[in-house]
Design brief:
heterodimer; A: alpha+beta; Ubiquitin-like (UB roll); 3 helices; 5 strands; B: alpha+beta; Aldehyde Oxidoreductase, domain 3; five-stranded antiparallel β-sheet; four-stranded mixed β-sheet; elongated
């Protein structure tokens, strides 16, 4: 199952990409996806702890189940305005 | 209604014109502007050289539309314009502009304050600050504080 990942700010700098397609391993939900990403990019650990997650442009909790084609974005503490 | 993320300078006159009509006796406009001094994480001020704004554009515009919707539900106000700039900003430039028009000023002030507070707390927009303090320079992502 593939999902689209969007990275911004600190996440974008650590991953080095704005957007990637990600094949989910055994994970079915956001929490599992975050764990998979930390395994590949260990420097995400700190920022992953205090970031929120959006699925298809809506804030969601980490237990949310992912579906093929979902757009998942990681939202570190915001600084707009 | 204007709801916009843009890399162009914010034109406050355009926002005001958007919310002006014969029913509105109170127009409130807010500009959030890049200032020279900002607190460092330990609380002491440091000098700011520039800010770089970045947005999750589609989601930020959606949140801004939701804010407009909430304002309509709370105050029955539909004259709203919200623009947020992204990219490189120098001291004195406006990062965000909001204009609200209402029959009377009290609702216009309240709705405008609600709009900027909610935007700052929820819109997926980030800023990187280039700073100097005690002859040290750096660039850091700056997180909004909770409103007082």
């Amino acid at each position: 199952m593939k999902v689209k990942l969007r990275f911004f700010a600190s996440w974008r700098e650590i991953v080095g990409e704005e957007e990637i397609e990600w094949s989910l391993g055994d994970s079915q939900n956001v929490e599992g996806l975050v764990t998979e990403l930390i395994a590949k990019y260990p420097r995400l650990i700190g920022t992953a702890l205090n970031s929120l997650v959006m699925v298809n442009r809506r804030y969601t909790d980490r237990q949310a189940t992912l579906r093929s084609g979902d757009e998942v974005a990681f939202i570190p503490p915001v600084g707009g305005g | 209604m204007i709801i916009r993320i843009t890399d162009q300078p914010i034109d406050v006159q355009e926002l005001i014109a958007e919310v002006s009509n014969e029913s509105n006796g109170g127009i409130v406009a807010f500009l959030g502007v890049v200032r020279r001094w900002n607190d460092s994480p330990n609380g002491s001020p440091r000098e700011v050289y520039w800010l770089e704004y970045e947005a999750y554009r589609e989601a930020a515009e959606e949140i801004m539309r939701e804010i407009a919707q909430q304002i309509e539900e709370k105050w029955a106000i539909t004259s709203i314009a919200i623009a947020h700039r992204i990219g490189h900003l120098e001291i004195g430039e406006a990062a965000v502009g909001i204009a609200v028009g209402a029959p009377h000023r009290v609702e216009a002030f309240d709705a405008c304050e609600y709009a900027i507070d909610t935007l700052k707390a929820t819109a997926p927009i980030w800023k990187k600050e280039a700073w100097e303090r005690d002859h040290q320079t750096g660039q850091s992502w700056v997180e909004n504080k909770a409103p007082l």
